[in-house]
Write a structure and sequence with these properties.
CBS-domain, two-stranded antiparallel sheet, alpha+beta, three-stranded mixed sheet, 5 helices
Length: 143
């Protein structure tokens, strides 16, 4: 199963935020959207970074609660792991596990076209395993 299938199922909407926004604004947006990460992008097309709940918690631990008044680019990850529409679920799961990230922006020709979370990938993998199990049961019952 490819990432393109995941985006067809979940949609390709990506919540983005400007690097000039405050950490407090990022927290509010993630809470409002019910998401765990925001892509940092001035135009919604080119990725400048990503900020996750984990980034914010670590920044608060290191710098204290006043960090929420700072710009989001002070806590974002500027090196962003990405994936592509034709990547398969297994390789994306491996990337997420190896890099210890929970969100991967999906990019086509350098343009942001979606984002997948570990939850999206795990759900797709479970659905895939359930389909395979049903097919095996149907095959066995047909004999």
């Amino acid at each position: 199963m490819q990432i393109a299938h995941v985006l067809r199922t979940k949609g390709s909407l990506v919540s983005t935020m400007s690097r000039e926004a405050t950490v407090a604004e990022a927290i509010a947006e993630m809470a409002f959207q019910g998401i765990g990460a925001l892509v940092i992008s001035a135009d919604g097309d080119r990725i400048e970074g990503i900020v996750s709940e984990r980034d914010i918690v670590r920044a608060i631990h290191i710098a204290g609660p006043s960090v929420i008044d700072e710009r989001v680019d002070s806590v974002m990850s500027s090196t962003v792991a990405i994936c592509h529409l034709d990547d398969d679920i297994h390789s994306v799961m491996t990337t997420m596990t190896d890099l210890r990230v929970r969100h991967l922006p999906v990019v086509v020709d350098g343009h942001l076209v979606g984002i997948v979370s570990i939850g999206d990938v795990v759900k797709e993998r479970i659905d895939e395993l359930e389909r395979e199990a049903r097919e095996l049961v149907d095959y066995i019952n047909a004999r």
